[in-house]
Amino acid sequence: MELNLQPLASTCHVTGQTFKEGERVLSFLIRSETSVEVVRYDVLESAKGAFAPAGFVACRWVHVFKPRKAGENPERELKLTAENLFVTLADPTVELAPENERLVQFLALMLERKRLLRPKGRSADGKRAVYEHAKSKQLYEVPAGELSPEFFLSLQEQLGVLVGGPKKADETKPAAEAAPTA
Question: For residue 109, is it within any domain?
């Protein structure tokens, strides 16, 4: 699963203010009502009440703004893969929106299958599964849940936004398929 997205903005989408180091920023992935394209919006947490997304919010998260280092290439972050979406959403410093818990569970399952995450058991309270990221060796805690048909149905709309929904078959048959008349 890959998406081409904009990197973290340096200014608030609502107020136009430049983000300062340490400010809390809400990031949204939204599919507009007029396009199949997924767009990233970054908004100061203090301005979230004035933000009215036009479209379906695929996921959102809160993080602390850190300016890019000199010489850092923002183009590298343009391609959002399942792996770095998981790393972003499951980061212990990020506040995960409750509606994204199942998305993180699904991404963990997918990345475990690809051997990018290794299961390391459960948290002390048993409510979270612990995974180790193969490349960085960082541990991530993911809400534990039952992988039922209802689980996957509840994810269908979010995943449809992120990876694109199924293409609809054309209802009309081409003229070439019509039976010849004599």
Answer: yes
Give pLDDT tens digits for 131-161: 999 888 989 888 887 777 777 777 776 666 5
Stretches in the chain below the pLDDT threshold 70: 1-5, 36, 69-80, 157-182
The two three-digit tokens of residue 160, written as one number: 């449809």
Helices (H), the chain: 82-90, 101-113, 149-163
Query: What length is written for the chain?
Result: 182
Instruction: Please give the full DSSP string across 111-160, using - where no structure is assigned.
Output: HHHTTSEEEEEE-TTSSEEEEEETTT--EEEEE-----HHHHHHHHHHHH
CA-CA distance, 26 to 63, in Å (whole number)?
Answer: 7
In a domain, 129, yes or no: yes
Question: Which pTM does this prediction carry?
Answer: 0.57
Q: What's the number of domains the chain is made of?
A: 1
DSSP H or E segment with residue 55: strand 55-64
Domain that holds residue 75: 2-164
Q: Is residue 180 part of a domain?
A: no
